[in-house]
Amino acid sequence: MGDAFDDNYETFKALLDAFPPSEAVKRLELFGIEQDVVQRIRDRHEQETVRIRELEEPHAVVLGNRDTWYTGPQAKDKCWPAIECELRKAGWPQSPAIDDLDNSSTRVVSLLNHPKEKSFSTRGLVVGYVQSGKTTNFTAVMAKAADRGYKLFIVLAGIHNGLRRQTQARLVQQLVEPNPSMWSQLTGLERDFTPQENPASYFGKNNKTHVLCVVKKNATVLRKLARWLEKASDYLGDCPALIIDDEADQATVATKSINPLILSIMGSLPKSAYVGYTASPFANLLIDPGADDLYPRDFVVNLPKPAGHFGTEVLFGRYALDGDDPDQVDDGHDMIRSVPVDDVPCVRPATKADIEGFEPVITETLRSAVEYFWLVTAARRVRGTGNPHNTMLIHTSVNTSVHNSFHRPLRHLRDTAARSMQDAGFIARLRGLWDRESDRVLAEEFGEEKVPFDQLVEKLPGVLESCRVIMDNSSSEDRLDYENGPVVAIAVGGNTLSRGLTLEGLSVSYFVRAVSAYDTLLQMGRWFGFRNGYADLPRIWMTDELAEWFRHLATVETEMRRDIDTYMTEDETPLTFAVRLRTHPALRVTAAAKMRDAVTAASSYGGKRVQTHYFHTNADWLRGNIKAARTLVAASVTHSGRVDERPEDGRYVFHQVPHDLVVGFLSDYRFHEKSPENDADLIIGYIRKRVASAGSLQRWNVAIVGNPQGDDFAFGSGVAVGRNHRARLKTNDVVADFADIKTLMSRRDAGVDLAGDVSTLTEKAIRELRQTELPTSGLLVLYPIDKVSEPGPDKKLRAPLNAEEDVIGVGLVFPEPQYEDSTVEKYISANLANVRIEDEDYSLVDSEES
């Protein structure tokens, strides 16, 4: 009986190649298969689709009840098994790496339409991490879609030839070469799309091959492709097409030409699915979802971070999010080296007028970075493991003449080093550099062993001899090429190196370019990715200001991904999801051209926690905040309904304080101007709107949290608690009158006004308890911080606070809105008056292709 059922189920699976599930069931009934067997087949298929829909990873938010027709690879498949085989040869472990790729690509394919549906026009977005294997993921998606009958595959590969060529090479290697008879190519390694004669030879019924087309986002090229497809329209009615938009936030959204051309191409294809891939989805999620555009209305998939991936947070640390305790928020690895502000004019022209004739100076930090790169390359040769290539990135400007100006001084530095290998002073300096760096980041922490200097120095002459200095930009002939043997290269470049392109074996980056948008900044991070065999060795030289921007970015990125996952579990759709993201107080993050549908920042603080971590350190500013805090405490003593005194725990809570006293404090207290999320005007406006519209936030609990072991800080009115210790983040350029303590509140503090002991509760449990006990009350917490605040011995990336007076930190916890939440709007952008910005250059998008 079981064998008969299994045979019928195999028949059903074979029918799924030709028909969507509902049609396949009808065919079974036409074959005369009994109704109860048909029902069992339907039930089994439903179980398989449920397994796909309920995969733990990746999370997805989906519009409506999309028909999950795809339940994974089959024994007769050709394209996906070939990729699996390639990855095993490349050393990928089956678990978790290949299994995770299998699951995530299956989930994406399950959200596409069945290729035999009469017509469809799907729009989706896959959110990954920078340099985390997005290309491998969409290659796996293409392979599985090809195995099920998708015919035309168009990959939009950035705006530069380098990335287009690299993408074409990888797709040919993983899709075409294992099954050459199954594929036709409209593009090649050296040629972008040019119209082919006789479209019937590609799309006619007699041609069963899949068609691959890898094109740049260039208006001329896409126009040619759109016209050619329009001419081929007679043959496209039964041509299921998958359009993959790699780096989907680049050019697609920001330019006037690319978006309409993609829509025009889709208009020629009655069966088309557009899937954007990006690590920075800010712009894509700010497209107007109501317009006929590329907003991912059908699905958003959030890929998990792969094991061993170096991301923003790992390298730069981040600020606390709701539910984080200060001790749990990592400061990042000690891999960032500071470029002094005084060095910047030596490596990039101060103004546009200075570009002509600019000659860079090899500063002490740039020389250290280059010498360290040679040492790393030598050490990796001693280890003999991992990626065979070794690359250093120097990125100071988008201007090609600035790149070219580095060629002579870098070659001179290399040649001088090669001649100095017998110089005892030179060798001693290198030994000192290696020992210092090895002591700051211990190899054992990454499962590696430190390479002794005496071993690596033997490899140095060979490293220097093989090291090339390459200018990789849109005008250079000599480009990075990893296809012809191991590479040792110092690559100087701009936009061609800052998007999508994988810099193989990247270990050292020297980066001083300023950008104005989070998504651009995130994409600059070519140093993110996998560092198998040398995870202890990467270093990044950049200014302290840039490192701080990346730390901010890590926080926004982590919060955004956390929000995506949260909304995915709350039965949201991609359309309501957009609104949720747009009202996020911190997402002022993408270029103005991409934010044409989001010109104002609408901030909703419902259910959020706000805390201060930037402070001035001058006495006048700090005394003003101390005075504001003492005024609030005195008023709270007088006007609160009840006081909980726990001085032995360093805690006071004043219950039922009128909101106007809190508003008065927020008007007097001065938040640091570098904290856009701590905007007193926005917060006060939000409180007043909630009070007026919903009667919420009329009463507040005001708490004081101190350290029972600290020296007492007196708020007056008989209220005193021990001072907290919060060391500041260490910077090489000591910025006068500025401290960043990074985290202030603990999870427990967000429940300081709740009944009972909340110290063991999760963030979610504290939120739920607040909803039950205090559904309409806000919480304001004051933290007196010791002005010296020496860091603990294990805090290597911290320095004493050293403020002129004690610091008052402030935390705010807002209740979840019971009805529709109030928002307050205000256009806010970072003050970039003193920063020379070089944003992405989109001139190539509209340039004529030869």
- Name the average pLDDT: 83
Biggest sheet character: 8 strands, mixed
Unreliable spans: 579-602, 826-840
CA distance, first residue to last residue? 66 Å
Strand portion: 15-25%
Rg for CA atoms? 29 Å
Classification by helices and strands: alpha/beta
Strand neighbour order, sheet with most strands: 1-8-2-7-6-3-5-4
Q: Assign an overall shape.
A: globular
* Number of DSSP-assigned strands: 30
> Helix tally?
25
Helix-residue proportion: 25-40%
Task: Write structural notes for this entry.
By secondary structure, this protein is an alpha/beta fold. It is 36% helix and 17% strand. An eight-stranded mixed β-sheet has the order 1-8-2-7-6-3-5-4, sandwiched between helices.
Present the secondary structure layout.
Elements: H1 2-15, H2 21-30, H3 35-53, E1 59-62, H4 79-89, H5 94-110, E2 120-127, H6 134-147, E3 152-157, H7 161-176, E4 183-185, H8 200-203, E5 210-215, H9 219-231, E6 241-246, H10 258-267, E7 271-278, E8 299-302, E9 309-310, H11 312-316, E10 336-338, H12 344-347, H13 364-383, E11 390-395, H14 400-405, H15 407-419, H16 424-440, H17 453-456, H18 460-466, E12 467-472, E13 488-493, E14 506-511, H19 518-524, E15 529-530, E16 539-542, H20 544-568, H21 574-582, E17 601-603, E18 609-611, E19 614-615, H22 619-639, E20 642-646, E21 651-658, H23 659-668, H24 680-694, E22 699-705, E23 712-716, E24 719-722, E25 728-729, E26 739-740, H25 763-773, E27 778-785, E28 798-799, E29 807-813, E30 824-826
Parallel strand pairs: 2-7, 2-8, 3-5, 3-6, 4-5, 6-7, 10-16, 11-13, 11-14, 12-13, 14-16, 22-27
Antiparallel strand pairs: 1-8, 9-15, 17-30, 18-29, 19-26, 20-21, 21-22, 23-24, 25-28, 27-29
Helix pairs in contact: 1-2, 5-6, 9-10, 13-18, 22-23, 23-24
